[in-house]
Amino acid sequence: MECNQKILFWNVRGLNNGAKRTAVRSVITATLPSIVCLQETKLAAVTDSLVLDTLGPLYEGFYSLPADGTRGGIILAWRSPDVSISNPHIGDHHITALVTPSDGSGHWWLTRVYGPQEDAAKLDFLNDLRDVRASRIGPWLLGGDFNMIVAPDEKNNPHINHRCMNRFWWFIADEELRDLYLHGRRYTWSSEREAPTLVRIDRVLCTSGWEITHPNCLLQCLSSAASDHCPLLVDCVSRPPSVRRFHFERFWPKLDGFHHMVSEAWNSVHPDPDPNRRIVARLKITAHRLQSWSARTIGNVSLQLKVAREIIARLDAAQDFRPLSHDEAWLRRKLKCSYLGLASLERSIARQRVRLAWLRGDDVAVSYLNIHASHRKQRTAITSLQVGAQTVTSHDAMAEAAVSHFSGVLGTAEAREFSIDQSILRQYTSPLDDLDEPFSEEEIWRAVQCLPSGKAPGPDGFTTEFLRASWDIIKQDIYDAFNKFYTANGRGFQKLNEALLTLLPKRADAAALSDYRPISLIHLIAKLFVKVLSLRLAPKLGGMVSTNQSAFIVGRCIHDNFFLVQQTARLLHNLKSPRMLLKLDIARPSIASRGLSFWRH
């Protein structure tokens, strides 16, 4: 569903003076949300002129909850060209209303909350929200200042009310709500002191139905310039779809005509004497042909399901008043049979998108898979980057910053003052001649079978499933490339040695590029080269690597090093002689290792 809405949730901490209203209006003018939800207005009465002064002339309708003295108060306003809001229910700590987009895309419920401060009132507040949900059917979005947290890491000190925290957590679980991922910030409120208390008490929750109808929504944290709370902006504006690169679908090999299409496309390229260039050209034409074949054979599965449901529903309605003709009965049976296959295909596509390795069997709804994929997309989306003292938001500026940063990190040689004296290191004496043996077809095929399934593809777009399904067609070209690789002839290999870098956040408040972990998605053929070499080397690592190295070696456990250090420390303590233990920082080994005996100038 296309959606062009922005929803702003903000605890403004009072609107009683003109300067505060002007500051709030500047934020609203800069973001232009369709719906504005302000809390803690501290206004006993909300007039049209005050709303006009705070929000501007674009917001024609509003509902309000008066403040209790100088505490509380909520304003819910909207822009009529974008949405209409009706059926308000005003409680002690919330306003709930029905939101109907102007494009007729489907209504949903919105609840704007401002949670109480007292612990006893917080439990009544959660029960009130349960009653609100029980009396309203449909997608639901609720947000604001709950004055509660759901986990200890949402506060920067240990003073936590675990009883209220657990009750809030159970409320979210019982109502089957999803906590929208917050981009760029870890906390939303500050005590504004020299040693501030930081807490995430502002959040936005939603039901699965709302998330399904708004798959591209992003929750962003804006500047807290005019309050001690950060404004939360739910951005559901439809973004232009990016050019989708080729991605091999795991269900393609199960369809009739797949092997014929791959054989025809693979052999349509004139054989190049260079196997590396030949493979690149054949993969490219095969990808293009598979996309065209899939569009003709399968098409838009979701659209076909909708059309099938509509036609079956109309035939069912006609059957209530008259017998169906022979052609109509045949069409109804055919559509029902096709619908089962399309539903199964839709599930396969959703499973590939979500890539949950632990998921087994088919006892999972497609909606769950779509929600999980949407949530992962929200979590990994990069909306801005901190570059020095500046914050860049445009795609081109962020791409330029990423290229500049990782060009200085990856593959950069640094001048070193020390080197390793390998003569005092333990030498490996077992024979290694078999590592230099020529590659065989059986060895390569064994590596293909060992490659993991369901992994993200590299720049070529092909996955391990393609190798296994099409091995009889492509194996000779792969074998030729391995033979060239064996002769140390790297001409033409640069096309197979390309990779994509994708950035995954290391922390919830990732801002700079150093807060992201680069993941390399290499070419399928390069991945196969690496796998063959690793399978040759793996059986010999146990004898080549010292027993002190306990990680990443088959038959060893990383916890062994912990016990070794523990027992060593106890032994040194019992000896009562001066000793020193050094902890080597893996990120900066050159700093921690200077002065050790095996380093020489």
Could you explain how this protein is built, in words?
By secondary structure, the chain is an alpha+beta fold. It has 4 domains: 6-235, Deoxyribonuclease I, Chain A, CATH 3.60.10.10; 252-380, no CATH class; 385-544, no CATH class; 559-600, no CATH class. It is 39% helix and 16% strand. The protein contains 18 helices and 21 strands. It has helices spanning 18-31, 48-55, 119-134, 162-174, 208-213, 258-266, 275-297, 301-319, 326-354, 366-380, 395-407, 441-450, 464-469, 471-486, 524-537, 541-544, 559-575, 589-593, and strands at 6-11, 35-39, 61-65, 74-78, 83-90, 94-101, 108-114, 140-145, 177-179, 182-183, 189-190, 198-199, 202-207, 218-221, 232-235, 385-387, 390-392, 419-420, 499-505, 516-522, 599-600. The strands form 6 sheets. A 7-stranded mixed β-sheet has the order 3-4-2-1-15-14-10, with no helix packed on it. A 6-stranded mixed β-sheet has the order 5-6-7-8-13-9. A hairpin with a 2-residue loop joins strand 16 (385-387) and strand 17. The longest helix has 29 residues, at 326-354. The radius of gyration is 31 Å and the shape is globular. Mean pLDDT is 84; it is low at 588-601.
Strand and helix layout:
Blueprint: E1 6-11, H1 18-31, E2 35-39, H2 48-55, E3 61-65, E4 74-78, E5 83-90, E6 94-101, E7 108-114, H3 119-134, E8 140-145, H4 162-174, E9 177-179, E10 182-183, E11 189-190, E12 198-199, E13 202-207, H5 208-213, E14 218-221, E15 232-235, H6 258-266, H7 275-297, H8 301-319, H9 326-354, H10 366-380, E16 385-387, E17 390-392, H11 395-407, E18 419-420, H12 441-450, H13 464-469, H14 471-486, E19 499-505, E20 516-522, H15 524-537, H16 541-544, H17 559-575, H18 589-593, E21 599-600
Parallel strand pairs: 1-2, 7-8, 10-14
Antiparallel strand pairs: 1-15, 2-4, 3-4, 5-6, 6-7, 8-13, 9-13, 11-12, 14-15, 16-17, 18-21, 19-20
